[in-house]
Amino acid sequence: MNLFERSKQISVFLNKDIAVSCETQIHSHMSLDDLLTECKEKLNVERHSKCLLYDSQGAELSDDDIEYLNEEEPLFLSQGESFTKGSTMALYNQVKSLGEGGFGSVSLYEHRFTHARVAIKSIKLRSLLSPEDINRVYSEIAVLRELKHTNIVQLYNTFTLNEEICFVMEYCSGGELSAYLKTFGPLPEAKVYSIALQIVDAIRYCHNSKIVHRDLKLENILFSSDSYSMIKIVDFGIAGMFNLGKSGEKSDAGSILYIPPEIYKFQDNRANPAIDIWAMGCIFYYLLTGEHPFMHETVKEIISHIEKVSYKPLSNTISKPWHRLIKGMLRQKPSNRWEIMRIQDHLEKYVDDPDSNVSDDSEEEENKKTMADAKIQKFNTYTKPINLLQVPSNHLIGKSHSPSRSSLSDKNPEGRKVFPKSPTAGKRVANLFDQKK
């Protein structure tokens, strides 16, 4: 450290008990032992205890680190035990509560030094009463650690503190999409296009990562700021992994108004991208109309209408591309629902030209067209004109579908059949010998 550089004032917390802390001055040429001695005295730690100092990332300090300590980063004094990740809570001051739930709470915190704001979700361990509850918590941690996307909430850190699991997450100050819609919904189509494209891009990213959200709903979509332009998808607690052609993770969990018919009918509860497609269809419908497509007075009525895919058609005041899209997404059979790429292409195609003509075929008509196109493609594969001289001889010889062979034959004086040589046979032999030379 430069002799003329001013001293630095550093906050030091007791590891495992951040309620105990002190301020200490770091002077020129101070050694790690000097710093430890001063911290032990101020924190009333036994002078002869073998202590360690950690930075806020849990790295043990050495003499070489003293010069580079930052006043904005606190230190943690350990009495020999390993760094406790929960000690990082010392970096934050609680601002306010954001919400309460069955498992715990979410609060807004501000970093003591950088003043950056984060949302910390605390889940009480004693509230996790079943293996499914525990799996849900750790599934969310595992999923969020893997997903890095502009429209998916970012997980910064996780740790256990005072019998609670804490998630330090990106703070979305704009609040839930559901609350926004109560004030401003239904939304103009231009705004719906903007939100829908962000949702689709995030879910496409999830599906490419073989993750199905399985609980998409208005309450799990937040605005990142008060500008209400960028959205963030949250709550991956029941997200499931899937593999095309293989069994996906099974679950009947979800939100009643967004669950597709195959789950209610006990046909298939495996993680499948089609589950998210259905939920997005319900969300887009609500953004356009201010109503849930399957909302009714009783649970029984809701489920009945979902199973029959019976919902009120969109108003004629809504442009045709949305009519086409909603019909493509809210289909009874999962395999008939539009795939994520088709949805994204459709939105991108009509976002700047919503009044252009759009076909309005029914699901049955579209399936017929798809099957017809497949048949035509298959037929063209077999009927494409080819040069017979380019076909390998074993493709024609000895095959019952090659009637021309007998008609080309003739008999020699001994009565045996002979066949004319290919006009290029001699050239091919010559070329072969030329190459060997």
Automatic annotation (TrEMBL):
Gene3D superfamilies linked: Transferase(Phosphotransferase) domain 1 (1.10.510.10)
GO MF entries: ATP binding; protein serine/threonine kinase activity
Region (Disordered): 351-372, 393-437
EC code: 2.7.11.1
Domain of life: Eukaryota
Compositionally biased residues, Acidic residues: 353-365
Keyword Cell inner membrane: no
Family as reported in the entry's similarity comment: Belongs to the protein kinase superfamily. NEK Ser/Thr protein kinase family. NIMA subfamily.
Regions of compositional bias (Polar residues) in chain numbering: 401-410
UniProt binding sites for ATP: 121
Pfam families per the UniProt record, alphabetical: Pkinase
Assembly information from the UniProt record: Monomer.
Originating species: Stentor coeruleus
Protein name (record): non-specific serine/threonine protein kinase
Tagged with keyword DNA repair: no
Protein kinase domain span: 92-351
Keywords: ATP-binding, Kinase, Nucleotide-binding, Serine/threonine-protein kinase, Transferase
